[in-house]
Every structure is written in C-alpha cells, then in structure tokens.
Amino acid sequence: MNIIERNIFRLLRSGAFDTKEDIEPMSAFKWRRLYQMIVAQNLVPVFEHGTTTHGRDEQLNLPDDIMTLMKQETADGNYDRKTFGDEDIRLSSRLLNHRLKRIIKREMQSEETSMETVDLLEIIIFNVNQILNYGLSLDGIIRLGQYLRKRGDKVDFIKLDDWLDRLHLSRMAQLQGSILISVFGFEQNELPFVLKEEKNARKLAIRAVGNLAKDTAEEWYFRQTRSGFVQNNSKKLRRNIRRSIRYYSYAPMETTSSFFTNLARSLSEIEE
Question: Given a cut of 70, is residue 213 above it in pLDDT?
C-alpha cells in the first residue's frame, strides 16, 4: 500500500472498530485525495469518528478545508448511506431468489428462529448486490464486520453455511470475510464462514478505495435517441463486463443473472 492507502485503512479501522494506530503525516494534496476516496465510498461518518479518535495525534495534519467539509457532510446528512433495510433483499437469479425467500419464510416460521442469522445473511446478500451492480462497497463490508462484532455470538453459523451453500454464495461471503481479515484486522475465528482467506481480497479492497468514479443506477446501458435509433453506453457496458468477469468465480449464477437482468431492464426502459 502507498501512504494514502495505509492512512485511509488506519482511520477506517479506528472509526469502525475503535483501534488506535499511528498515522503518517501527509501533504495537503494527499489528504484531499484521501478524502475524495472516503466520499466516493460513502464513509464520511466512519472517517470522522476515526479522526476524532486521533484528535490529539500531531501526525494527523488534516487541512482545515477537509475538516470543514467533513463536519458539513455529517451535520447536514448530505452523504447517501444505504442500509440493507432500505430495500427488498433479493437476488437476480429467479431460482436463487425463490430459494432465498423460502429460506427466510421457513426460518421465520421455525420454533427456534434465529433473527441474527437471517440479519447476517441479508447483510451478505446486500453486499453481493452492491458488488455486482455498483462495485465493492467498503461501507457494506464494515457493516458486516460491525454486526459480527456486536451480534456474532448469537449467529448460528452452521445454519448460515447451509443457506449460503444452497444459494451458491459461499465464496462471495468468504470474499467479504477475507476483506475483513486482510485490511480490517479481523481474526479468522471471528468469521466461521471463511474456510480460507481469498488471495485477491486485499487487492480488491485497495482497488475499491482508489476508484473515484461512482457507478450509479441512473446510468443507462441503452437509450433511444430523438431520431429513433437505439444508442448504447459503451463506457458503462465495458465497466459492467469487467466487473462481471472479476467476480464471476465467486458467484457464477448470480453474477451472470445480475448482468443480463440489468441489460434487460435497460432495454425495457427504451420508449416504444
């Protein structure tokens, strides 16, 4: 990692998991670059908490303009921080989504319902949707870690493993857990669903913080021009093809379904 990446993960670990690590002093330019990464990942509140923890650290030489922007963002609530409860948790694959709904329905009707296990499954699937539709979200990974630290002792991991296997999401869940291990300081025994650490986890996390181009749902694959011809957004199409290739091995069925579902949705929105 370079100095910006080292500091960003130190402050995120501090803000999310209350660790205390030495910060390396940086130039104003590098701090502004770091803050751009934080904003792109929707992590301003976590970052602010991390800087507060290091409030008396002389090495934390944040420029005044960054401090002002950060306080404005958190005070005004300008950042868009989605949660897995903000939307219906579903999978793009009809078969897997049917299994998901059946799993949750049966668990809710069980005499020994484990809501913590259901919640953890939903966080993992929320992250899967974020990864395949928008790119890796460190915000979502951090929330997974925070839930495990807070409620992990209540989770039935045997049941969770069975659900993930039936949904063909075991490796995708393992990837999320591997990121918690590789850059957020988790121990593997905190993540029973991680059988082995995914070798690309650290690389993908670093790649995510370096990506300042936000991928949004409002972007289009295809649209109809005034002359009536259909025009495709080649930049978005290439970006989503690359993403699908990158994550295909972790969840082949869901990755393929997600890609073609997005294409079909975009085509259906073209005016007749």
Answer: no
Look at residues 209, 202, 192 and name the one whose alpha carbon lies nearest to residue 139. Answer: 209
E strand or H helix at 232:
strand 230-232
End-to-end CA distance of the chain: 50
Report the alpha-carbon distance of residue 232 to residue 210 in Å, rounded: 27
Q: Residue 261 has which token pair?
A: 């579902």
Helices 28-40 and 3-17 pack at an angle, to 10 degrees, of 50
Task: Let me know: does 79 contact 85? Beta carbons within 8 Å.
Answer: no
Using CB atoms within 10 Å of the CB of residue 98, give its burial: 0 to 12 exposed, 13 to 18 middle, 19+ buried.
exposed
The SS3 assignment for 222 reads strand
Per-residue confidence (pLDDT) for residue 154, from 0 to 100 = 95
The owner of tokens 């974020």 is 130
Please say whether the dihedral angle defined by the alpha carbons of residues 3, 77, 135 and 52, taken in this order, is positive or negative: positive
Backbone angles phi, psi at 231, to 5 degrees: -115, 135
CA distance 27 to 19: 24
- State pLDDT tens for residues 155-187: 999 999 999 999 999 999 999 999 999 999 999
**What tens digit of pLDDT does each residue of 47-77 get?**
999 988 887 777 888 888 888 888 887 775 5
**Exposure pattern of 226-238 as b/e (b: 16+ CB <10 Å)?**
eeeeeeeeeebbe
